[in-house]
Amino acid sequence: MNGFFELASRRESCRNFHNRPVEKEKLTACMEAARLAPSACNSQPWTAHIIRNPKLAAEVAATTQAMGMNRFTSQCPAFIVITEDKALLTATVAGKFKSQDFAAIDIGIMAAHIVLMATELGLGSCILGWFDESRIKDLLKIERTRRVRLVIAVGYSADDRLRPKVRKPLEKTSMFID
Ligand SMILES: Cc1cc2nc3c(=O)[nH]c(=O)nc-3n(C[C@H](O)[C@H](O)[C@H](O)COP(=O)(O)O)c2cc1C
Fold it and tell me: Which of 17, 28, 91, 159 could in theory staple to 43 by disulfide, Cβ–Cβ 3.0 to 4.6 A?
């Protein structure tokens, strides 16, 4: 099978990275794919800090590790740190009206674009929600008032086969109302 379903099936969270550096062009392509992501009112409420410098990457890795979590990030050569920008007023007002956090939803979608593009380019990736936000802000000189929403670890996988997917059955998660 080819196409989107095959790509989505091939994407998995990589927790075993090769120490080979990631080409800047590939990370740029991931960010081009992120630019195409939909967002509420086309607000695009995100900024990404892309880290390839080995010393800085090791420091970012350290901010994702506590209580035994995410030890594998020490091997990862690149990170994309995503911060939330102020959304357009229309998106913020619409979100308040509907009690929805559109900016967080938008960032989830753009993160999906990043990891799927990474997969397409032969890269492994892992979305990380477990990180020390305050430490990352200090490290990357991000204003205290901004939120860091996600960190994405990106590199070449050292695994030569994919894991089987563990997912809830379709019947449990999708209800067709005919
Ligand atoms: C918002 C979010 C936060 C996550 N945080 C972490 C994390 O901190 N560490 C980790 O190893 N995996 C993390 N993951 C990866 C999930 O564990 C993974 O996507 C899930 O188990 C499904 O496995 P797969 O990605 O290999 O298909 C995160 C995923 C998402 C979407």
Answer: 91
Q: Is 102 helix (H, G, I), strand (E, B) or coil?
A: helix
**What digits encode the pLDDT tens for the residues 48-105?**
999 999 999 999 999 999 999 999 999 999 999 999 998 788 888 888 888 899 999 9
Homologous superfamily of domain range 17-158: NADH Oxidase (3.40.109.10)
- pLDDT tens, 120-163? 999 999 999 999 999 999 999 999 999 999 999 999 999 999 99
Describe the chain by its helix, strand, coil percentages, rounded to 5: 45, 15, 40
Rounded distance from Cα 93 to ligand 1 centre (Å): 30
Residues with a CB atom less than 6 Å from ligand 1 = 12-13, 15, 70, 126-130, 165
- 152 Cα–ligand 1 center, Å: 10
Q: Whose CA is closest to atom 18 on ligand 1?
A: 13
Q: Where are the domains of the chain?
A: 17-158
